[in-house]
Amino acid sequence: MRNRFDTQLMELNNELIAMGALCENAIASSVKALLSGDTRLAASAIRIDQEIDRKEREIESMCLKLLLQQQPVASDLRLISAVLKMITDIERIGDQASDIAEIVISLSDACRHNRHIDEMAQATIKMVTESLDAFVRRDLDLARSVIAYDDVVDDLFAQCKRDLIAEIAQEQDDGERVLDILMIAKYLERIGDHATNIAEWVEYSITGVHKGTNV
Asked: What does each C-alpha distance from 27 to 172, 188, 214 come to in angstroms?
């Protein structure tokens, strides 16, 4: 019975990895679309979000079956409950990547290159990847490093805001576009928060202690 349970847990890990990879693709596609003005790429990010939603439902079903059909011990219950929380954050990451893509489509052209937006995207992808790696590898140190790395994203967001405020001061007629870019930076900052949440649930699944959730 335990061997079957362990096999199902491995399948759960694999599905979670696949869902995380979709999120990485959605973030990368939406930001690349922003910097290139490629609305077709933006549309693909929106389609990826729909696939992420489907994955969330599948993983939720897998978790409920494990809880109902097996007899998990306390550590297994922590792990499965953590996955149920994590997929909510992963799904929200997909939503925010889709929101970025929708702004790109409404802009209909490329924004001027913004180094901090690009850096924020790379940083948030790193956080999503490493938070899920920490779960699969049961790596507490990696989970905690993701939590600490959120400060990097917050600093980049602050720098991006300063850049955009300076742009508005110089080109007041371009205010609407700049506000759209600021909203995109905010979405990336929130993605970092959700990756932090994932890492905190990883920590809980290992230690049984949860320190709180970012919105």
From this structure: 29, 9, 19
pLDDT in tens, 107-165: 866 665 567 888 999 999 999 999 999 998 999 999 999 999 999 999 999 999 998 88
- The Cα 19–Cα 60 span in angstroms is 12
- Give the DSSP letter string of the chain: -HHHHHHHHHHHHHHHHHHHHHHHHHHHHHHHHHHHT-HHHHHHHHHHHHHHHHHHHHHHHHHHHHHHHS---HHHHHHHHHHHHHHHHHHHHHHHHHHHHHHHHHH-SPPPP-HHHHHHHHHHHHHHHHHHHHHHHT-HHHHHHHHHHHHHHHHHHHHHHHHHHHHHHH-GGGHHHHHHHHHHHHHHHHHHHHHHHHHHHHHHHHHS-------
* pTM exceeding the 0.70 threshold for the entire prediction: yes
Provide the phi-psi class of 37: left if phi over 0, else alpha when psi is between -120 and 50, else beta. left
In angstroms, rounded to a whole number, what is the distance separating the alpha carbons of residues 53 and 38?
24
From residue 112, alpha-carbon distances to 37, 124, 126, 196, 206 in Å are 10, 21, 24, 29, 44
